[in-house]
Amino acid sequence: MSGSQTPHESASESASGAAADASQDFIVLINDEEQYSLWSASIAIPAGWRTTYGPAAKQACLDYVDEVWKDLTPRSVRLRLQEAADRARNGG
Predict the structure, then answer these.
(1) Buried b (16+ CB within 10 A) or exposed e, 51-64
(2) What angle do CA 77, 80, 83 make, to 5 degrees?
């Protein structure tokens, strides 16, 4: 992701972080490139990202991402590939 801030999991990820995560609420964010990120619900959402799921338990958020994010290719790349395929199909 060039030039964009990438959200990350809560700083509570540590040796004891796994137990804390089970009770913490998380949200799933999406950006304009249709890329997803797990984010602590207690931390402000960074610019360029919006909530698409949650707040919910961490595992529920991970399950949601597994269900909906089938193509990891950024949206802009998918659009360019589609445009190139359309041009080739139309002889152009």
Answers:
(1) ebbbbbebeebeeb
(2) 150
d(CA 63, CA 70): 12
45 burial class (0-12, 13-18, 19+ CB within 10 angstroms)? middle
Find the helix or strand (DSSP H, E) in which 76 lies. helix 75-89
Q: What is the pLDDT of residues 23-68, one digit of tens each?
A: 679 999 999 999 999 999 999 999 999 999 999 999 999 999 999 9
Q: How confident is the model at residue 2 (pLDDT cuts 50, 70, 90)?
A: very low
